[in-house]
Every structure is written in C-alpha cells, then in structure tokens.
Write a structure and sequence with these properties.
Four copies of one chain form a homotetramer.
Chain A: E1 14-17, H1 39-49, E2 53-57, H2 58-61, H3 68-85, E3 88-93, H4 112-131, E4 136-140, E5 145-146, H5 154-175, E6 180-184, E7 193-194, H6 199-206, E8 215-217, H7 221-226, H8 231-240, E9 248-249, H9 268-280, E10 287-289, H10 301-325, H11 327-336, H12 351-359, H13 364-368, H14 374-385
Parallel strand pairs in A: 1-2, 1-10, 2-3, 3-4, 4-6, 6-8, 9-10
Antiparallel strand pairs in A: 5-7
C-alpha cells in the first residue's frame, strides 16, 4: 500500500460548496452552533487543504439585501481569494428554498408570480455564476413538491418544471455562456414528496426538454440513499446515458432525514463501488462534496472534516485500484462472469438470429449448476476495503 | 352517495393474473397454505366476479415440462373458459425468475447461455401471449440485479437489458403481433438491488431503445412504495411522458418485503390520489391487480379478496368524483392555486420575455404572504375519503 | 351515521402544544413562514375550537432571557386565558434541544457541565409545570444520541439517562408534586441515532429505574412510524404494561424526516386501529396533538388544521364504534377467532398440564385447513373507513 | 497489523445454524439452487473451518414425518460427528413457521388448538435440544403477528405470548434442564407486523414474565437493521440490562426484505461498533451466524462464505483493538469526553444535591463553545477500518 497517496492536490479535482464546511449547524430542532465563514476566507481554507474548486448558491455569496457596494466588495474579495489560491468556481446554483415565498415551490409553485420570481432569481444567479466562470449550473428543486397531493396535478408540475428549464437553457444560449445544467434529484424533504425524486426520474424528464444536450444530472449520495436506492447503480445509469454532469458526495443512512454526513462515513461498501465506477468510467467532472460537519463540531474541526472527506475518497480509489489489480480478484471476476456480461447476447434482431435462438437446445438444469462465486468475490472486496493481508 | 356502484362489470376493465387470486401462499418462510386453482376454473371465477381480463406468466398457464398434448389440453380448456365467460387475455409475460438457472439474472445474467435461454423463453412466451390475443407483454426483471455489486458493471447490465428488449421488439414486429411491451420496475427483492429500480429509471431506459414507441411501463403500487416513492406522482410522470401502458394494483407498507396486499388495504390516501389521476387522465388500459390473499385465507375467501380489490377501486373512484364535484373542494382548489399551475409561467424563451422577467419588480415578502390553504384542502380530501357528512 | 358528532367538546379531552398550531414554519431548509402566536392568544384559540388542554416547553411559555417581570406578565396573561376558557395545562416539558449547548446531548452529553445544566433546567421546568397544574411531565431526549457511534458507550449513556430520570423523580417526590413522567421515544433526528429509540426500549428502560411507577411513556405516531413500526401495536404493549401515561398524535410517512403532519392525514388505517384501541382500552389521558400546519399555510388556516385534527379523531372513533357494532364484523371477528385469542391456551405450568399437552394428538394438516377470513374482516374495516353502504 | 489472526479456532466461539451455510437457496420468487447438506456432514464441515458450535431447529435435524428409526439414525450420525469434531450444540430452537398450520401464528394463533400444538412442538424441541446439550433455546416468533390488524387485540396476543413463555420456563425447570431462553425480535416478515418487533419490546416483555431471569434476548443484525435501528445501540441496552443471552450475526440493508447476508458484508461501520462492544463488554456467549450464501453460490463456495463470516469478525475485532490502542484515538476520545460520560452527573437525589444544582451558575454560551471533535474521532475510526497508515 506504499502508493496510497491520501493528501489531496488540486489535480484530484475536489470541490466544496460555501454552505458545506462552513455550515453553521442550524437544524430543524436547534439554533446555529458555529459562526459563519466568509466566502474569501473559505476559499483560502480550500486552498490550504488542497481542494480545486468552490461552488455556491447566489445567496451564499451575496447575502440577500446587500447593497450594490456590498456585493462588489464581497465579489472583489472572493475573486482575489480565487486568484491567490488557484481555486476555481466549479459550479453555481440558486437558492430557491430558504425564503418563505418559496413555501409552495419555485418553478412549480401554484403561484405564477412566485414562478416568475424564481425564474428571474435563477437568471440572475446564472449571470453571477457565469461571471465567475462556473461551467455547471445546478438545479435542485428542493421545494418542488407537495404534502397535500391534491394541490398539484403532477403533469402540470412537470410541465412547469420543463418550461422553466427550457427557458433557462434559452437564456444561457442567448447569453453565450459556456454553461451546462445539472438537475439534482431528491425524493422528499423539505417537501413531503418531491417531483423528480430520483436519478431515473430526472434522466427521463431531461429527454423531454427542448435542449436535452444542455442538461444532465447532479446526483447526491444522500438523496438516492434516503429511499434506499443503490447509488452506484444510479450513477451507472447516468454514465450509460452520458448524463453525469456533476456529483454531490456525502453520506447517509437509508430511510432518514437528509443527513449530509462526511463522505465515506456510513455506506463504506457502496462508496467503494461508487469510487471504483467513477475512477474507471472516464468521469472528468469535479468530485464535489455537499456535506457538513457534525453539529457538535467547532473551530478547526470543520477543516479536518474537509480533509477527511478527500482522504477517504483517495483511500477508496486506491483500494479500488488494488482490488482490480489483485490476481485473486481477477480470477474471481472471471469465475463470476463479470467480463462475459460485456459480450453481446445475440446482437441486433434478424429473423436468422431469432431462428437460431429458438433452435438452440435449452438445458436449464445445466445452466443452473454454475456457481458465480459471488461470496468469494465479495469477501475479496471486504478484505481490500479493510486493508487485510491476503494469504 | 346513491350513485356509488360498487359491484364491478366488465366495462370497468379490471383484470387479474393467474398467480394472484390463485396464489398458493408459499412464502420465504413457509409452505403453501392453499391448493392451486386451474387456469380454466380461474377464468370462470373471474367471470363470476365481474372481471374483464386475465393475465399469466407462460409457466402459470402451461406448467414447465408439460407434453405437447398436455399443453394443448390446458390451452383448449383455457380458451373454452375465455369464450364462455367473455374474459379476455389482457396481458402476458414470461417467468424468468423461478427456475434456478436464473439465479444470477435472465437478460443480465453474467452467463451468456442463460441470457440466450431467457430470450428464447421470452420469445416463446410472446408467441403464446399473441396466440391468445394479449395486447401487452410485461417485462419484469425480477432477477436482473446483484447482491455483490462488484460482480456486474451497471453499464454492461443496462446494455444487455437494452439489447434484449430491442431484440424482442424486433421479434414482435417481424411476426406482426399487435403487441406492446411494458417494463415493470422494482427496486429490490428477490435481488439485493435491481436494475431499473423505479418508474423513472425505466422511463429513462426506454428512451435509449431502438423502438421506444413500442415500450412503456407497468408500474406496481407495491414496488414504488417499497422505497417510499409517491406512486401517484410516478404515475403522473409516466402519463406525462405517454408511457403508462399497463398498471399493477396492490398495496404495501413502505420499507418492507414485497407484500402484494389487496388494493386499497394500506395506503388509502395515496390510492385515492392514484385512482383520481387514472380516472381523469384518459388512461384506457386495464386496471390489473397483482396481489394475493393473506396467507391465512382459505377457500372462497380468495374470491372475496378479488371482489374487495375491485370494490375499493370503485369506491375510491366514486369518492374522487364526489370530491371534485364538491363546491367546497372547488373553492379550496382555487384558493390553493391548483388550476393556476396549469398556466404557463413565461412561455418559450425569447430575449424579450427574458428582459421582461428581469425587469419585473420582485416583492418576495408579498409573495410569501399567500396561504395555499392546503390544510383545508387536505381535510376535505380526508372527509370525502371517510364519507363524512359536510356541514 | 347520524350519531357521528364531529365537533369537539372539552370532555373529549383533546390538547395541543404551544409549539404545534402556532408553529412558525421554520424547517431545516427554510425560514419561518408565519408569525408566532402568543401563549394567551393560543389558549383563547384552543377554547374556541373546543380543546380541553394545552401543553408547553418551558421556553415556549417564557422566552429564554426574559426578565422576571416579563415572565410574570406572560404567566399572568396565560393564567388569565386559562381561567377565561377553562382550558387546562395537561402536560409540560423542557426544551433541551434548541440551544447549542445541547448539541452533544442533554442528560447524556459527554460534558458533565451540560448534563448538570440540563438537570437544573428540567427542575425549573418541572416547577413551572407544577405551578400551572401539569399532571404529566414529558421527557423527550431529542439530542440524546450520536452521529459518531464511537463517541459514547451506549451503556454509559443509558446509565446517565437513568441517573437523570431517577434524580427528577426524587425531586418531584421531594416537592410533593402530583406529577408523573412520560418518556417520549424517537429513533433518530435530530441525532443520527437516538437512545431509547422506540416504545419498547423506553418500556424496558423504565423497569430499571428507582421509581418505575412514576414513569410511563409518551409515544408519538410520527416517531414509531419513521422506522415503520406499527404504532397501534406499540400502544397495545404500552397499555398491556400499564404505561401509557400520555400520547402524541400526528402523522407521518414511513422512512422519512419527522413530518408532524395533521393527525389522520396519512396512515388512515393504522390511525383507525389506534383510535379503536384507545377508545376501548380505558385510556383516560388527554389526546394530545404534536403536529404542525403545512408550511404553506397562513392565517386562520392554522385553526382549521386544529379543527381537522380533532374532527378526524372523532370520525375514526365513530367509525370504530360502528365497525364493532356491525353484525357482519362481529361474525367476521368470530370466524377469525379474535375472541379465541383472549382464552388461555393452557394456563400456568403444571406437570399434569404438560403431560396433557404432550399427549394431545397433533393433526397439523387439519389445523392448517382453517380459514381465518382475514380478507373479509379487513375489507369490512376498509368499508367502514370509507363510509360505504353495506348490502 | 502483524497480530491480526484471521483464521478462526474453536476458542473464538463461532457457531452456525444447520439452516445457514446449508441453505438450499429457495426464496419467495424462486426454487432451490443448491442441494441440502446432511447434519452430520455439516458438523464435519464446521469442524474443518474452525467453528465451535452448531445450532438447529427441530425440523432441520429430524425431518418432520421421520420414523423413530430414521430419527435415531440421524441423531446417531449427528452425535458421532459432534464427538469426532469437538463441535458443540450451542443453541436449539423450534420451527413454528414453515408448516401451514402456523399461518396465523403459533403461540399467538387465534386458534387455540394451534397454540397448544405449538407449545407441544416446542416442548419436544426443548427435549431434543436438552438431549444434545444446548444451553440456550431460542424463541423466534416469526408468525406471531398480523396483516389485518383488526384480527388480533395486541394485548391478547402479548398475554398469550407470555403465557407460552411462562409455560416453557416451567417445563424446563420441571425437567431440570440447564437451559435459558432467548427471545429473537423481528419487526415484520413473514407477517405484516410482528409482536415484539425490536430488542426493546422484547426486553420490556421479559420483565413481565414469571421467571424473568430465565429469559433474555437473541438479537439479529438483520432484524433490527430492517427498520433502521442502530444494532450496536440495541445490543448496548441488552448488555446494560444483563439480557444478551445469544446473538445472530449476519447483514442487511435498511428498509428491505430479510436479506441474511454474510456478516460484515454491508453495514461495515455498524459492525465495527458492534464487535468493539461485544469484545469489550464481557459477553461470553457464542457468536452465532444466522445468514446464508448468496443464492447464486454453489458447491464449496458455501464454505468460503462460512470462512468469510468469521474472518471479517476477527478482522473487525483486531481493528477495534488497534483503534482503542491508538494514541490519536485515545486523545480524540478524551477530547470528545467519552470517558466523562461514565462519570455521575449528580448522583442519587438528595435535597442538598438538588439545591446545589439549582444554585449552580448556568452559562449556556460557554457550554456551547466546546468542540466534541467527533469528526476527527470518526475519521480515525474510518482510517482504522480501511487499514490506512497514519501519519
């Protein structure tokens, strides 16, 4: 394990949002436990811990109600910190959930005035993001949902959602911004049920848009995990459909409130499979952390949290490389038929191919006699995860 | 409530699978508790209770290992019962999960021989279904998944899945069958994690196929509910994308084994919203029940179970009609802005529209002051569900 | 259904907490959407809607940091409103979760100073509750848990928890307050995992206390439901062990953040079974609602929410009475053997009884042939819930 | 890590049930995938892999319907294998779930005849277990539950459950068997909802029994995890109450069907915390595995599965020892106040202690300023789990 580099460098392409490490620790039942971190200070911290990128909601960077002069000052300090550290803005997004005007939704609020306000706020946020070079704009529809299902016809909500994304795509093209959108699905919380609840629903929605090429997904570990879906399989489908434009790394136990724990702190096996997939799939986007320190953390501990997030990613990436290089694993994968799954079963339909298939003698009992040695393969995975010496 | 007809007639278009009412009650921990019901007897029972349709897996109708003569006899009796009762075959499907040869998957087994066997079995099942007039062929990939995530690269599995569906579409077109496919998603069980886990993932997958028009979805209440997704919202998206080709009605508690309870016996409110959506959306397919009597049921009780399934559907449909006709509901929906959600927010992008939006004075505080009266609306829903007299 | 009284009167013994109807709508992702309701105004509102009782956390009534004069003024107004309306204080409790000092727990914080502060705050809260006549003091250990499991040895945490409850029991006895304690279990949120996560764990814990007779449970629908346990069965065990001292009514979907929805708005069947159990078990405590209006509600809608909570309870109680009086139900219960379950199987152990049992001829096949007609019984339940006319 | 012994020896006290490694792979949707393993052969296999103990249901050992001669032959071979290998019978139990006569429950079936048959079957199973030296008798009430909640009054069910356990305690005492009972809780499956759903409910129930000292719990990882409870915290409460009489190790994802995966294959962090707790708590019972190989496993792979189960346990135990010996961990635990939680907060109630507490100056802001460094502690845990070199 001598080649396990665990200290991140900018080339690793890790990024953090302003609202993550610097989260003040307010939750549904309690007041803040930590002071805020100013954006420029945050960027300098990122530089120190080896991160490459920073992301923000419009309101994280420029507090609502700021005067033009205040906004200019914040921006100047932020740019100065970016220049000094080499940290890049890798993503921007709009806060369409904190203000009470969004209590019934933003792009899918039943109030047309709210929908128009949300669009204008998103356009201004896009301008801000573009001015700072953000290549990806995330759309998280946190309030796009219902508690009282009778209040919104789902088809109407989806139509409004699509209208909004189409409009924003038009805006970005019109302005000539080199920016793509990434929709972030979430099944529930803060709404009872959210529209576009999973990666799959978002991928399907995107195919209905006017400019589907401009829009991909920004899956988050915690969001898919809340409802117990396999995150790495969802990422697999997003990659297969060419739509993984961004990713939010954190952690979560199934069936709970949105925990946003430090990446790699809960679903260790699933995260191993995720990192193995990301590192071998050609994904070149940032590895973006959308998590926050435990609320009982204080002071420099928030930066330890940041370092731990990246350290665990690097450790899992190293373990995945070692796993795939282990001859015992290579043999187990072969015995499991993992490579065989990449071979065509029959190819494109032709009457000849169909006739051949139907003429093939079937021997289900013999087919049933094969072992896929998945227990050995899985134990090898656990062994590599736990850093166990192999005989 | 004088117009609440609760006894089904064929025009209601209800259907049941051979494996449902007649389920023998075997589960993961116990042996069968009931004798099987022969297919022809089953059809006659359906006729008696007012159902319109019957569905089957190939092996439900023709037991594996049957001689040609036995198969002929079963088929003749089945056709005779269909003719006598007017019950139609409304769906057919293939059993690709019971035999141990499918223990690692069918279309996505790592064993190419199993994949080819599964395709041939599906083609024969399609022939059988077509011969009996089934307009819809369901593809449930019960074993298409993994416990040991390292054993299958998700992208390979999806590629094989797509290859299989494309091949079957080619086969159906080649044979000239007037048949469409409906993919039935499920998140897990009997596999640890299943490919195409939700309606969304299936809808997205379909857009990648060679003949996407031939393929829709067959969502099941229990399957989406297992992971806690809102079923009626998922159906809303399937309808919005024009892909609701079939539906499986039953019931389930969130976060549990696949319960397949009688429709309407658990998620009463969600089912109300579902029936309201189906009845007002123009869905013309069968309302198909994929459920089974409690295992401690015996004898004629299995037909009471069938009657109850349809009775509750009709009752919820009546309640939904009455809900939407109630002036208090009409007023609450208006106050909630439900109709306003059907109005365009801004329309297609134009620079002029964008400029207008950005020039609009924003008054978030005023927008926040609106009540959406969702409590009143939801209470009215509960009142109608409970059959409460209104003041 | 002519005897269905749906408008509450004080004799119905409904109660609401100050933090419920008057909740300002802040959540983990958003700012308040409603103005607060002053305690005295709240009590007058309760009087108008027919509630019998009010409950509070110390800080709900007397805002932290109030001067003695301010506290006196609030208390005087509160008492005056109680006197004017006849509303009684039916429960009091301590807020040991909002202030950041409780970020690592209160009675089980790793900081001994915090534990002592929590005890002193609870003692003052008990004094306040006693001064207003509260017969029940609820202990909800919202912050008694961990995210990082290594940080607290569970046995130490339980020992500290027991020490705290024992001390408070001693205090109440010493002061001579006619007050009992009710522990409110919750599985998670706001902590990753909470100590005493369910009714069962709390019941078991109570048996270890110095004064177990002084302590019972305060189960909450949402809390047990979050992890998918049957609430009415948990209440059944609490009743069976004589420990149902208080109850928190609200609603929730399984596997989600703590939703605190209006009672009866989600788990309709489970709530029917709950109300049937409460109404027939001799429970004489208040029916206390710990829920809050949807965040997009505003103005008088919060009182509609309160009315709806009670209306649905009364409707379910009426439906349960009608269900149990329906001859078809009586027959189905008999066929199901429901009454037979109340009969002793064998009685206390004696060698003679044992010998008799072992000598009894076993005929499992014959025992297996019985139908428990649970489908009919359950359909009757659904029929009564939906207010369906019976043939 | 040179001292990490990963090959089990009998002194490690690992045990497996006959139904585990030798599981034939039948599930709710599929037929068996593997041949059965005869009991004597199974014991010899256990001897080879270094296990210390074997457990069984009555019907696993003596197939129902065996003649006396057949039973004798099986028993003789079984005893012979035990003698030859030194494997001990460490637990026995009764199958009260497979036969259809138990479809409505066993000790809580609504049919009194079934209840009596279940008791007699359990008594005979106890005789069989005692004859083979089993010190623990497990009671898993797999069918003790309902789908149709109206069919059983929960209090009646609990009364019958208690009656049965009391009777069996009387029987064991009467016979003079040196045997204790362990109740195995489970929340659901195969019943919709099970009585005694969690460790907590079982612990509470036990306190109501006639001979509470004879009865403890047999918690299973998968069962508590199904509903998302923290297993190690549940075990902590069982240990704290002196009731951990046996344990079932396996693995499971939250919110799913009962998966019975190989121990340590899913919830790696939770299992680390569990093993750390077991190894430091003085627990001296067997570490019993109640799991089964993936269904697509065949042949010798089932024994690799057994070896992997024990290997991972030993690896986690080693990691836990190293974690607790690491000076950085010792420092982090101290900074977190982990040891401080073992200190009394105030001690037993006295008026003087109460007065002192109330007189203590409170400074919540200062108390809130502490960091519990849980991020560092948790990252150290992850580092140790992943076998990462420390700087």
């Amino acid at each position: 394990m001598a080649d396990r580099r665990l200290d991140p460098v900018p080339a690793d392409n890790f990024a953090f949002g302003l609202w993550t490490i610097g989260n003040v620790g307010r939750d549904a039942f309690g007041d803040p436990t930590r002071p805020p971190v100013a954006p420029a200070e945050f960027v300098r911290g990122l530089g120190r811990v080896g991160a490459a990128g920073v992301s923000f909601h419009d309101d994280d960077l420029i507090p609502p109600g700021s005067s033009a002069a205040e906004a200019e000052r914040v921006l100047a300090e932020f740019r100065s910190a970016l220049d000094a550290t080499g940290v890049r803005v890798t993503m921007a997004t709009t806060n369409l959930f904190t203000h009470p005007c969004f209590k019934d939704g933003a792009f899918t609020s039943n109030d047309r005035g709210v929908r128009r306000h949300a669009l204008a706020k998103a356009m201004r946020g896009i301008d801000l993001g573009a001015s700072l070079g953000a290549p990806v704009y995330v759309l998280w529809g946190g309030r796009e949902g219902v508690e009282c299902g009778a209040a919104k016809r789902p088809q109407d909500a989806l139509a409004r959602y699509a209208e909004a994304v189409n409009f924003l795509c038009g805006y970005v093209r019109d302005r000539g911004y080199p920016m793509r959108f990434a929709i972030e699905p979430k099944p529930n919380e803060p709404r009872g049920d959210t529209f576009l609840p999973t990666i799959g629903h978002a991928l399907a929605f995107i195919t209905t848009l006017d400019q589907p090429d401009m829009v991909g997904v920004n899956p988050e570990v915690a969001h898919e995990t809340m409802v117990g879906l396999s995150f790495h399989q969802g990422i697999g489908q997003a990659l297969w459909q060419g739509k993984l434009f961004h990713i939010d790394l954190n952690d979560q136990k199934i069936g709970r409130y949105d925990q946003d724990f430090r990446f790699g702190s809960e679903g260790i096996k699933e995260n191993f499979l995720l990192v193995r997939l990301l590192e071998t799939s050609g994904y070149t986007g940032t590895k973006h952390f959308d998590s926050r320190p435990y609320r009982n953390e204080w002071g420099d501990g928030i930066w330890e949290f940041a370092r731990g997030s990246m350290r665990t990613y690097l450790a899992l990436a190293a373990a995945a490389r070692e796993f795939d290089a282990d001859p015992a694993v290579v043999a187990a994968l072969a015995a499991a038929g993992a490579g065989e799954l990449a071979e065509e079963s029959v190819g494109a339909y032709t009457p000849t191919a169909a006739a051949a298939l139907l003429a093939e003698p079937a021997d289900p009992e013999q087919l049933a006699a094969r072992s896929y040695v998945n227990e050995r393969l899985d134990q090898l995975l656990i062994d590599h995860l736990l850093g166990l010496p192999r005989a």
